[in-house]
Batch of 2 targets.
Target 1
Amino acid sequence: MTTELISCIPHLCYHMVEIIFLGSGGSIPTEKRRHPAILLRHEAYNILFDAGESVQMRIEPYGINRKMVIFCSHRHPDHTIGLVGLLLRFSLLGRQKPLDIFGPKDLIPWVRMAQEAIHIGTSFPTTVYGVENGFVWEQDEMKVRAFEVSHRGLALGFAFSYQRTRGKFLPEKARALGVPKGALWGKLASGETIFLDDGRRISPHDVTLSPGHGLKIVYSGDTRPCDNTRTAAKDADILIHEAMYTEEHGTLAEERGHSTAKQAAEIAAMSNVRLLILTHYSPRYYDGASILEEAREVFPTTILARDMMTVRLLYDGTLEVRQPDGHLRSFSAFRG
Ligand SMILES: [Zn+2]
Ligand SMILES: [Zn+2]
């Protein structure tokens, strides 16, 4: 189980991945909690999970022409209604880079029909891919795997993973070993062993940090508690799971294909995740206190998603959660 620490994170700490909850609301958005949209940022990429109604405005500060890919969990409007607006806004603001959209196969006609019905052409190429279980996207040491979940109709969850193949290059170590700056530094940084004029062999390990542990972030989409989520979330750093209801409304959860907070927490406990973030809870629970309380009885390392809450996974494995009011909380680097 993760040990919680309250500490200051050095400002210069290099962060690996940042998650911004652009929308954490239920099916009916409120002033404070908009439709689901979760933005994961890593280096040059914006990776968006679901595109609820307010996504077009909330994503704009994070870049309209960055490399980007979208994963839609399912076709229900609270997860997709913002997609067409997003395409329109990006076009009006002159996006040029291609945009790939992944989701269950019934998403393809939905997007095409919506575009045709309101005559949206985009200023950039868009491709919609219908996907099933398995790895669906891979780029620069990042991978996304889709897995079927149990909702009403076709629905997917997604597991994002990242594993560095090489650690950070350390110029001071190269200098200390007498490696001249230039092409030899480049070779070492890209993983090649080199030989100096005096015959010494310098390996990349001599001048780089270890690649560090990989990381995994799993998003359930809308679902009943299911084995596929449990398997996908095994040992994940973060599980973002829907928790539409408390146990008091367990029958509704069953009828409507959703999870209770307790059920989401049980999945987190069985999967040995570091941090559970509950999202998409019904507005009937106001600030979500009862949702959080129910989950923490089963899995104490649980927090609630809030709109514009940011989670960073730092290079040393620390999880840092920043609320919109600036309140900062961090979780220790590794499992205890
Ligand atoms: Zn939903
Ligand atoms: Zn749904």
Note: The two ends are 6 Å apart (CA to CA).
Target 2
Amino acid sequence: MKVCKELLYRDVMNYTPIDVIKGMDMITKKIVMADDPAPAGYKIKPKCKFCKNFLVDDKNASLGICKASKNNFMAYPDMIATTCKDYEGTDL
Ligand code: SF4
């Protein structure tokens, strides 16, 4: 099976978490680790870290800023963005 090196299971729509460590691959119905690479072709989950408006904090990689907001509010890389009207996904 070809594996996409850039996406982890926790970053794809075809993954449903059971807890913070593991979840289910919704295609194969197998239990997988959240941080394992996802197979190629799995659909990316919209998150701030995949958005063109997200700017990583130079001093703390686990934080960032949303450039689409008027006040440049703080954003988290793994924040789910499925309901964000300003989400601009990047192509991986
Ligand atoms: S526009 Fe939405 S998805 Fe993009 S960085 Fe801001 S809050 Fe996150």
Note: Residues 8 and 41 are 12 Å apart (CA to CA).
